[in-house]
TrEMBL record:
InterPro entries in the record: PBP_domain, Phos-bd, Phosphate_ABC_transporter
Protein name per Swiss-Prot or TrEMBL: Phosphate-binding protein
Pfam families noted in UniProt: PBP_like_2
Biological function: Involved in the system for phosphate transport across the cytoplasmic membrane.
Source organism per UniProt: Shewanella oneidensis (strain ATCC 700550 / JCM 31522 / CIP 106686 / LMG 19005 / NCIMB 14063 / MR-1)
Gene: pstS
Annotated PBP domain residues: 21-254
Subcellular location: Periplasm; Secreted
A single GO cellular-component term on record: extracellular region
Family the entry assigns: Belongs to the PstS family.
PANTHER family: PERIPLASMIC PHOSPHATE BINDING COMPONENT OF PHOSPHATE ABC TRANSPORTER, PHOSPHATE-BINDING PROTEIN PSTS
Signal peptide extent: 1-21
Taxonomic lineage of the native organism: Bacteria, Pseudomonadati, Pseudomonadota, Gammaproteobacteria, Alteromonadales
Length: 269
């Protein structure tokens, strides 16, 4: 009898870790991570599953989903065909604007896309050239591998081709910040800086300027008037772990999409 009980106990110990392995692992874009953390918090209130979100950058998140080190990868840029394989699929969960942001003390209210591109190429170097004070423009950009940077470069035509490879056309004199938070800190503390961040990350510490006369807002993104936008994408296995699928189902549900809208992003439905 004791042997029988001991055998059951041993089996129970072996099975327990698998029964408890309910953590949904998510990694990737720092921009998407902000939204995913809020979605995870709400999801955990209605389920026994836990969700772990890590900000590692879009490229790293895509790779993590493909090699299986994360159940879900996050990207804030379009996924290239060569980054996908037959075992993975992409799911768009929201649309986000990329805001061109300046210090609150900067008098410039509006720039054209062409002006912004020229600023980032280093062709426009002084604020007086675009209606501001006679001060040098401090250009601030995201780090290489950032989904926000990749989307911004693509939309603003800030890429050039060298030997068949696309490379950044952003001035090498630009200050580099890792993550929306660092970009916000640099711009908020420098009256002559310009940066770009996720629209959902804009707060009263800095100001999103109009682009082509259009305010960066959810409504203008939805109508197509504000054109500096990109998708928020999740990359998952075609046959995801059930816990990951439950989380995804919640995100694309009416409740999940309501949270997306409340956080300042454009829902997919």
């Amino acid at each position: 009898m004791n042997k029988y009980i001991n055998l059951l106990t041993a089996i129970g110990l072996l099975v327990a870790p698998f029964a408890q392995a309910s953590t949904v692992t998510v990694s990737g874009s720092t921009s998407v991570a902000h939204l995913m953390e809020v979605l995870a918090e709400n999801f955990q209130k209605i389920t026994t599953h836990s969700v772990e979100v890590q900000s590692t950058g879009s490229s790293a998140g895509i790779q993590a989903a493909i090699n299986g080190t994360s159940m879900i990868g996050m990207s804030s840029r379009n996924i290239n065909e060569n980054e996908l394989n037959d075992t993975t699929k992409a799911i768009v969960i929201a649309h986000d604007g990329i805001a061109a942001a300046v210090n609150n003390a900067n008098p410039v209210q509006d720039l054209t896309q062409e002006q912004i591109s020229k600023i980032y190429r280093g062709e426009i170097k002084n604020w007086r050239e675009v209606g501001g004070e006679s001060r040098p423009i401090v250009v601030v950009t995201r780090e290489a591998g950032s989904g926000t940077r990749g989307a911004f470069e693509e939309i603003m035509k800030l890429q050039r081709t060298i030997n068949g490879h696309k490379v950044s056309a952003i001035t090498p004199k630009a200050h580099v910040g890792s993550g929306n938070g660092m970009i916000k800190t640099i711009v908020a503390n420098n009256p002559y800086a310009i940066g770009y961040i996720s629209l959902g990350s804009v707060d009263n510490s800095l100001r999103a300027i109009k682009v082509n006369g259009v305010i960066a807002s959810d409504q203008n993104i939805a109508t197509g008037q504000y054109q500096i936008t990109r998708p928020f994408i999740l990359l998952v296995n075609n046959k995801p772990h059930q816990n990951a699928q439950d989380f995804i189902d919640f995100i694309i549900s009416n409740d999940g999409q309501r949270i997306v809208a409340e956080q300042g992003y454009s829902p997919t439905k």
